[in-house]
Protein: MerR family transcriptional regulator
Organism: Fulvivirga kasyanovii
Amino acid sequence: MKEESVNHNSNGNFKPQPMNLSQLAAAYNVNERTIHRWLSPYHDLIGERHGHLYTPRQVIIIVECLGAMPNWR
């Protein structure tokens, strides 16, 4: 699996990639239980994961709900 989950495109803009729960937790510097709790109120807005991954569109929604990821790579 690709280690870099969220990056910048050639213009330096935010470019989301599919992410699983542990990648999101690492990006927000919390454990999986905490990120799950943080996402819970936004479940209807975010929608169901596709397998174990959130789609790039869902990652954008998550960032809009929780704010910027302090530890994104």
